[in-house]
Every structure is written in C-alpha cells, then in structure tokens.
Q: What sequence folds into this?
C-alpha cells in the first residue's frame, strides 16, 4: 500500500487534474507519486516545488516534469486535447459564457437603497 491517495476522478469531475503539494514531501515521495501518474498516463499539477526540491529529484523524474521555477509548479502527463474556443472536452472545464453580462440597471448601488457618497 502506498503512502498517498490520488483523486484520479477529480479531472473528470472538475476539468482540473489533482494537485500535489510538494512542500511537505520528500524527493522519494514526489518521485513515487510522479511514477504512479506516469504509469497511469495521467496528468498532475505539482505545487510548491522549489527549485532545490526539483533538482533533488532523480534525472529521469525531472525529465517527466515541465517545471517552472518562478511559480514553483510543475506539470506531468499529456496535455489535454486542443479544440476551438468554447468547445471544451471531457478533460477541460466548461467554457465561460460567450454573451456579455447584462448592464447594471440604474438605481441604488447597494442593498440599503442609497448611493455611495
């Protein structure tokens, strides 16, 4: 049994893959999670992955990650399929509405019926 549980269904439910907080994990734990994701062919977002922690990973694990030192994040796994704007896919969140928000009606601007001074 592993030391971690990954919510593999999160991406299907929300359109966003599971995120792994790396700040409290050893290099061995991050590597184990990364290898499980790779074997399953799944995407994961790694957060708070400091540059020194990234460098501490085995070379084959670093090669599996798209790491950004400035944001301290990394992605592993295949990119979602690209599609025309607004079409989405099973692995992407719903597209935002394409119609503009309705104009704000004239009148009081707060719930007390008065305008700000």
A:
């Amino acid at each position: 049994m592993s030391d971690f549980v990954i919510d593999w269904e999160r991406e299907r439910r929300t359109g966003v893959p599971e995120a792994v907080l790396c700040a409290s994990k050893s290099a061995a734990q991050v590597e184990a999670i990364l290898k499980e994701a790779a074997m399953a062919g799944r995407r994961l977002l790694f957060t708070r992955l400091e540059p020194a922690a990234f460098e501490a990973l085995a070379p084959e694990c670093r090669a599996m990650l798209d790491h950004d030192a400035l944001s301290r994040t990394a992605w592993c796994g295949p990119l979602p399929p690209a599609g025309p704007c607004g079409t989405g896919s099973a692995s992407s969140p719903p597209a935002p509405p394409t119609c503009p928000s309705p104009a704000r009606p004239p009148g009081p601007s707060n719930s007390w019926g008065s305008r700000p001074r």
